[in-house]
Design a protein that fits this description.
single chain, mainly alpha, 3-stranded antiparallel β-sheet, 13 helices, 3 strands, 56% helix
Amino acid sequence: VTTIDLQMIITACPYSRSRVDVYQMLNAAFRVAKQQDVISKNPAECLISPRHRKVSGMPLTLAEQKAFFKSIENEECKNDYLFYLFSGVRRSELLTINVASLDYENNLIYVHGTKTENAERAIPFTDILKSIISEMTPDENGYFFTHSADWYTKNFKKYSQNHCLRELRKSFITRSGENGVDIKAIQRWVGHADYQTTANIYFKAQDEFLKSNAKKLNDYQTARRYGRRYLTQFFDTIFRFLRLSQEKKSIKKPQNLRNFAVLVGVTGFEPMASWSRTTQNVRKINKNREATQF
């Protein structure tokens, strides 16, 4: 066996993750063989190490989520996938949910996970999860999800070609975050060991969510920029009118509020309006007093 033979074996693997695994196994096997004097030369020493770049999947957008709901509407596995989406549990954890896991009194579901130290946890037993469970029948052992983990993964592709099953879990985290749920609470519910895993890896903000928040930012900045100007204009008009009221004896005190209200409507809170224009407006009000009675 030559180095070229081994390299061809590695190259023939269709996936980068598989190429890394085969490379590591060949290296380990031939290294032990040389140590045991089974072979005099290790052909795996000169192999080119393959690289695997982990691609982090994206959660479903709102449009994709609606399309997914529609695609499973009449499927037998509908409630299985809906529970997975609305609970945020891992695939392996889904299979552990049974009748004993449900706490209706405290509105909690007890999840028995093993992946991290926070995997053993309680998650909210929300109304939608109660509705889903109510439509399901447990088996003789009390378990609700009876298919294998691999079956759920492979079957999911029938309903969402551009996503994989674990991205329903990411969608749960993203939807929760978009609707104002605290990221620390989400971390506890999904069983992540640390905050950064939830915040940096899973919480993928969607374009539509970013756009809506960009609009909020724009509205806030616009209001802050122009709100001060309009407030200045408003008080500027008040001070002008009060000053004019003192100078013009023809304006009676009972008429001040009425005159000011009409003056505001006429001037439009323009601080740059000339004093003569303001005076003309008030004179006009006095001449048409009957028409401005409230």
